[in-house]
């Protein structure tokens, strides 16, 4: 579920930050999609907006903030099937928790090291998509980050480039297609991979074959990377996912809304909070597009 979305959770994926001491926002369901609107307290939990998250800052000058009200609502014609796959995925992820136990016991510094290493490995894919989108300044930043972190940063284990003001960013071919006007409907939930859509599904395939490790990596390397990615994407957000599952009126519809809004923000190169807990805090206060 991103980005597990498993990577899309993962891609995402999207998870919950809950202030149990505050009052709740009521959720209204319209055609299966959840809208979050301020209401009189009705439960013991509330997604409380942070002053720092109330406004998402563009990642690049000239980019505009996402306005969900101006976006078309994502269609979900396969909702019954999607809900079934979503439920199966949720069970599989639950049984997978013991497998990621080694990652879960790492201190935060260790988890950051895993994330740095995996992000550095994806630099060639990010670079390709930077160029395809005409984002040449970002492409140059990606190139410098890869060179610095792969050497001084010990194969990317340490994000030295961040200290030089070169912040990491993600790009994938699904985002690239989005910048060329390809829409994000219909909504799909993929087995194991979680929330997606045809555009992002095709994008995932293109990103796979444009990754150098796909062609030169051994089976052991590929398996190790897959395990590390799953542990990082899912294990890093498992607590927030549990929180969201417990507090959402409709867990499936909430994840659908969050995934759609987050992907639209990424297409527009809008910076979202670093943590998935903060992401859901921000996006839960953006109305689901109509």
UniProtKB/TrEMBL annotation:
<dbReference type="GO" id="GO:0120010">
    <property type="term" value="P:intermembrane phospholipid transfer"/>
</dbReference>
<keyword id="KW-0732">Signal</keyword>
<comment type="similarity">
    <text>Belongs to the MlaA family.</text>
</comment>
<dbReference type="InterPro" id="IPR007428">
    <property type="entry name" value="MlaA"/>
</dbReference>
<dbReference type="GO" id="GO:0016020">
    <property type="term" value="C:membrane"/>
</dbReference>
<protein>
    <submittedName>
        <fullName>VacJ-like lipoprotein</fullName>
    </submittedName>
</protein>
<dbReference type="Pfam" id="PF04333">
    <property type="entry name" value="MlaA"/>
</dbReference>
<feature type="signal peptide">
    <location>
        <begin position="1"/>
        <end position="16"/>
    </location>
</feature>
<keyword id="KW-0449">Lipoprotein</keyword>
């Amino acid at each position: 579920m991103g980005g597990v979305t498993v990577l899309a959770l993962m891609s995402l994926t999207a998870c919950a930050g809950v202030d149990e001491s505050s009052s709740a926002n009521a959720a209204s369901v319209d055609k299966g999609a959840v809208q979050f609107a301020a209401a009189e307290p009705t439960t013991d939990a509330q997604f409380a907006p942070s002053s720092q998250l109330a406004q998402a800052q563009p990642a690049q000058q000239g980019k505009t903030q996402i306005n969900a009200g101006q976006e078309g609502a994502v269609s979900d014609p396969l909702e019954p099937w999607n809900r079934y796959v979503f439920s199966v995925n949720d069970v599989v992820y639950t049984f997978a928790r013991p497998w990621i136990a080694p990652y879960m016991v790492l201190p935060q510094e260790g988890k950051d090291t895993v994330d740095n290493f995996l992000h550095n490995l994806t630099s060639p894919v990010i670079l390709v998509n930077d160029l395809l989108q005409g984002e040449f300044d970002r492409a140059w930043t990606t190139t410098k980050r890869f060179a610095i972190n792969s050497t001084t940063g010990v194969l990317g284990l340490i994000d030295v480039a961040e200290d030089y003001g070169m912040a990491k960013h993600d790009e994938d071919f699904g985002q690239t297609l989005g910048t060329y006007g390809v829409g994000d409907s219909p909504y799909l939930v993929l087995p194991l991979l979680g929330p997606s859509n045809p555009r992002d599904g095709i994008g995932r395939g293109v990103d796979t074959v444009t990754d150098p490790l796909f062609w030169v990596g051994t089976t052991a390397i590929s398996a190790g990377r897959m395990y590390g990615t799953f542990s990082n994407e899912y294990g890093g957000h498992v607590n927030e996912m549990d929180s969201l599952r417990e507090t959402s009126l409709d867990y499936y519809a909430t994840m659908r809304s969050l995934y759609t809004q987050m992907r639209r923000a990424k297409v527009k190169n809008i910076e979202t909070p670093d943590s998935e807990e903060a992401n859901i805090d921000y996006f839960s206060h953006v109305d689901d597009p109509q």
